[in-house]
Amino acid sequence: MGYILVCDDERSICTMLQIAFQNQGHRVETVTGGEQACRKIDATLYDVVVTDVRMPHVNGMAVLQHSRRVSPETAVIVITAVDDTEVPIEALNAGAFYYIRKGPKLLEDVLTAAALALDRGRLRQQNAALKRDAAQHNSLDNLIGESEPMRALKQTIRTIATTNSTVIVSGESGTGKELVSRAIHTCSPRSNEPYVSVNCGAFPETLLESELFGYVKGAFTGATSNKRGLFELANGGTIFLDEISETTLGMQVKLLRVLQERCIRPVGGGQEMPVDVRVIAATNKNLRQMVQDGLFREDLYYRLSVIPVEVPPLRNRGDDVILLANHFLKKFAVQMSKDVVRLAPESLQVIKGYDWPGNVRVLENTIERAVAMSYEDELKVELPEQGGGQITPPAAGSAQGAVGVVLPPDGIDLERYIADVEKSLLQSALRRSNGIQTRAAELLHLSYRSFRHMMKKYDLS
Question: Is there a domain that residue 130 lies in?
């Protein structure tokens, strides 16, 4: 249902439309002047504004222009009793969604126009979500693996997908927690609604709040218009809160309230908005231990862990590692137009005999590197620590790695050496992630805040 503002200097019109909209289940507010309407639009995110044209002081055209400037996603329906052929042209050119002449069918026409506007708004939000996630959209079929732990995981997903309960997905870094989240959404009755993913560790608290809940014009410096938050964009669907352990205690209080009340309040807004969203959170840390250490709220922990799902590490998945390696081989061979068609027999043994710290993500990176360097039809794979050999300490300012270091006879400046290595790894992670800092932080198993701190330390901004 929508959130609608009605503005007309005739109270009878306001009352009639309010009753009709409320009977359809919409939330409605009414005002009798354009100045009041502009103040309401500044403070609240409306789906539809219905405004009369001829009003004293601030007329409906001014309300339309103000709404288009402050809240461009809001549909404005203009109504008038004046028979003037220039008014509808002016209104539509200014961005009005619909123009209606007051008459015997006013109520029917307004309700029809509002329904069309709400449908358009929902389609726009769904299309935005689909475009954002089309390249990464995953279903249960994308969880590659036939091992017993993976069969059990898939069955768990099928079982819990039909519920609306909050889910916490835990597991080591690189195990595919977001794939699990997407599979739960895809298998659920909400599959045709938006799926919205946010990395909680990628934002400071104030920015995360505005991203999740939206904000109204003037809420903070730079807030020149209203913006819908990710919870509202996910309405009817699923929101995935990745790295939930990285949120501050202050942010945890706000998330707890959303889970309890099923309402959000935009930053700087005066009205709460109900949302119907399934929440799936994920972490690679032990939240129970964080609760004991005072780093995570116990009440939020229990709200999130209604249904806990554990994603198994790759070392416990047996021959799944070969299935995954072949999957990545085909994927990157196509992307890079390589003629690689199979894994070399010796590589099969190498892959199966390795523990894969970093899990599926590291396996994928390893296969990608091997395909990129391959010029034969058989793929030969080197494990991550096999690619470098013995490394001597770098000279000052150099950017060599630190695996297999041999201490020279004259010794080294350890602090300088460690600094050079850290800077080199930061630069390598940024190159591999194409400059995407959240991805680079994941490659180094760092929180986003720690990664940003180190970037500033080495002046890599």
Answer: no
Contact predicate 347/336, CB 8 Å: no
* Whole-number Å distance between alpha carbons of 336 and 366: 15
Amino acid at position 301, single letter: Y
- In Å, what is the CA distance from 255 to each residue of 267, 281, 371, 442? 14, 11, 43, 24
| 236 and 355 together in one domain | no
Residues 205 and 348 in one domain: no
Residues 201 and 83 in one domain: no
Q: How are beta strands 214-215 and 227-228 bridged, if at all?
A: antiparallel
**pTM, full prediction:** 0.63
B/e letters for 202-228, b = 16+ CB within 10 Å, e = fewer, are bbeeeebbbbbbbbbbebeeeeeebbb
Residue with tokens 């402050």: 70
Say if 127 falls within a structural domain. Answer: no
Residue 397 · residue 416 · CB < 8 Å: no
* Look-up of token digits 């099923």: 262
3-state helix, strand, coil in the chain (%, to 5): 50, 15, 35
d(CA 284, CA 455) in angstroms, rounded, equals: 23
- Residue 103's domain comprises 3-122
Alpha-carbon distance 158 to 183, whole Å?
9
Helix (H) or strand (E) holding 77: strand 75-80
Domain count, the chain: 4
Tokens at residue 406, please? Answer: 């041999």
- Cβ–Cβ under 8 Å, residues 213 and 205: no
pLDDT along the chain (461 residues), means of 10: 91 94 93 92 89 90 91 90 80 89 91 92 73 52 90 93 94 93 91 91 87 89 86 93 93 94 90 92 94 94 94 93 93 87 88 90 91 86 59 39 51 76 84 81 83 84 67
**Helix-helix angle 448-457:414-432, to 10 degrees:** 120
Token reading at 99: 């123009």
Residue 228 lies inside a defined structural domain of this protein: yes
Q: Residue 378 sits in a domain of what CATH number? A: 1.10.8.60
